[in-house]
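Work package 3, deliverable 3.1, input record:
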Amino acid sequence: MELANSWLFHTLHAMCFFILLFIILFSLFPLLFYTLRLKLWCNCEICDAYLTLSWTKRFDNLCDWYAHLLKNSPSKTIHIHVLGNTITANPENVEYMLKTRFDNYPKGKPFSVILGDFLGRGIFNVDGDLWRFQKKMASLELDRSSIRSYCFEIVQYEIRQRLVPLLLSVSGKEDGVLDLQDVFRRFSFDSICRFSFGLDPRCLEISQPLSDFAVAFDLASKLSAERAMTVCPLVWKIKRKLNLGSEKKMKEAIKTINGLAEAVIRLRRKMGISSQRDLLSRFMTSVDDDTFLRDIVISFMLAGRDTVASALTSLFFLLANHPEVGSAILDEADRVLGPHPDPTSFQQIRELHYLQAAVYESMRLYPPIQFDSKFCQEDDVLPDGTFVKKGTRVTYHSYAMGRMEEIWGPDCLEFKPERWLRNGVFLAETPFRYPVFQGGFRVCLGKEMAVVELKSVALSLLRRFHFQLVTPYNAPRFSPGLTATFRGGLPVLVREKENQ
Ligand code: HEM
C-alpha cells in the first residue's frame, strides 16, 4: 500500500512537473522564436538601431527618433522591417490611406484583438458595417445643438465647482506643488463619464478615494496598452487563457466595468430615457442590445479621456515656457468676454480665435495620439511609390508630421499660434497635413467637444492662476502607451492672480 502510494505520489509529481514544463516552454518558445526570427530577419541600419536600442544614445523618445528618420527620408516614408511596419509622414500617403483607399486600410484584426475584451464591438474597435452603423448614429447625435450645450454645461460645472476650488486649495502654499497631468486626467474622466454615461465618478474631489469604476477603467486601459506593446502577442494570449497575472487583473477590471454599465443601463430603462441627456440614453433610443450599448459608450470614454488630458498637459507645458502666448490669450479674452471670468456659451468659446490657434499649435507639436496604424488588406502602392504588401502595418506619424519643414516651414519647431491665423481669424489646415484628429472617413467624432474642453480649461485657469514648472525643461520625455503621457507628470507651483 505504502509502495503504491509512493508510486502514485511520484507519478503525480512527475506529471505536474511535465505539465508545468510544457506550459513554460509553450509560453517561452514563441517568444524565443519571435526574437530569433526578428534578429535574423533584418540587419538594416534602422532595424539594428531599433533592436539594439542604440537610438536611445541620441534621442530621449522613440517618436523623436522616428521624426528624425522621417525628416531625412526623401519620400518621408520609412520601414521598420522587424515590426512589419511602414511609417509615413507624407501628407499624400496619409490622404490615400484615410480617404482615397480607405477600404484597403482598415484598423484590422491585430488591433481589434488587443482591445476586444475591453471595447467589444464599440466604434473604436471595429471595421465594416458595425463601424458604419455606429458612425452614422453617433454623427447624428453629436451634430445636435442640445448635445453641444450639454457638453458645455458639464465642462463649465467641472471647472467652476471642482477644478478651480482644487487649485485654490494649493495655491500660494510653499508645498503647493500639483501634478497638472494627474489633475487633467481626473478632470477629463469626470467630464467624459458624465457626457457618455450620465455618471459622476467625482475623481476631481481628491479627498475622496477613486471610485471602483475609475480604478477599473484605468487598469483596463493600461493593461490593454501593455498588450499592444508586448514583443510577442502570444504571451498575453496564453496568460489570458490560463487566467494569470495581468490578464487575471484585466478580467476582474472588465467585470467591474460591465457590472456598473449593466446597472446604469437597467436604471435608465426603469427611469425612462427621454429625460436624460447623456450619450448612453440617446443611443438607447435606437439600440436594444445591452452589451452593444455598453461597448459603444466605453469606446467613447476611451477615445475622449486620455486624449484631452494629454492635450491639456502639453498646452500648459508650452504656456509655462512661452508666457507671451499666455498674455496674448488673456488679451483676446478681455476683448471678447469683457470682465466675465468664464465664457457664457458655446458660441462665445468659438469666437476666441487666438486661443483656438494656441490649442491647435500645441497639438501640432505634441499630438495626444502620436501615431496611428492601419493594416493593408491587398498589395498596394502608396502615392510616393512605396510598395505595401498585404498584411503590412501602415502608420501615419502625426508627431513627426508636426516637425516637417516641408509642411510647416523653417520655423516648424517653434511654438507660434500666429501661423494658424489670417487677419486674426483661425484657419484650419487640411487633416492630411495635420492628422491630429485623424481625417477622412474615420475622423475623430469628439473633435468639437474636445476643442471646447481644451479652450474652456485653458481660459479659466489662465485668467485665475499663474503656473510655474517646478523644474524648468524644454522638451518632455514620454512614457510608453497609446496616448502621449509625460513621464513624471507635470509638477507645477500654482499661485492665484492678485486681481481675483
Ligand atoms: C484632444 C482630444 C482628442 C484627440 C487628439 C482625438 C484624436 C482622435 C484620433 C486620432 C482618432 C482616430 C483613432 C483611430 O481610428 O485609431 C479619434 C477617433 C475617435 N474619437 Fe477622438 N480625439 C480627441 C477627443 C475625443 C473626444 C472628447 C471624444 C468623445 C466625445 C472622441 C471620440 C472619438 C471617437 C468616437 C473616435 C472613433 C471614430 C471612428 O472610428 O469613426 N475623441 N480621435
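The two ends are 89 Å apart (CA to CA).
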